Amino acid sequence: MEAIRAKKIRRDRYDSYQKMIDTKATSDTESKIDYRRSACTESFPCKVCGALVVPDGAGSQHRNHCPKCLSSIHVDIEPGDRASLCQGIMEPVSVWVRKGGEWAIIHRCKECGDLSSNRIAADDNPALLMSIAVKPLAMTPFPLNKLEDIFKQ
User: Are 74 and 111 in contact (CB under 8 A)?
Assistant: First the structure.
């Protein structure tokens, strides 16, 4: 399992090895839906704030974070593959604007530090999105009152 977490081996390869050595492989891996090609129609409780996350209202067929607190769970190595064994909380740490003007959330896993980008959903908390977007301006690495002195030169 450590090899999968360290990304030295893919989940499907690990499962094949488990079958070869006749160890009980996780049966839920075989029955999982491939979300790379299928819509996510499942509801789930947010592991951070407890809100019920439903697919309706997202504006897309791929709901991957809570619209209330914007948190997610580290379940993918590649988008939609559900191959990550980490299962850590993915906290929203930043936002960025994609080509074409679409906003996306940058999530960082609290367990392994992995970063991922997820497009925002139509029903995401706008106040929280804005607070994440302006955080770098509110917490500058230099005193803002010194900018005036710099630009006077």
Answer: yes
What is the Cα–Cα distance from 16 to 14, expressed in whole angstroms?
Answer: 5
Q: Where are the alpha helices (DSSP H) in 23-84?
A: 27-31
DSSP string, 92-145: EEEEEE-TTS-EEEEEEETTT--EEEEE--TTS-HHHHHHHHHHHHHT-SS-TH
Element of type H or E holding 45: strand 44-45
This prediction has a pTM of 0.69
Distance of alpha carbon 153 from alpha carbon 148, whole angstroms: 9
pLDDT tens-digit profile of 74-118? 988 887 777 888 899 999 999 999 999 999 999 999 999 999 998
For 148, which DSSP code? H
DSSP 8-state code for residue 51: P
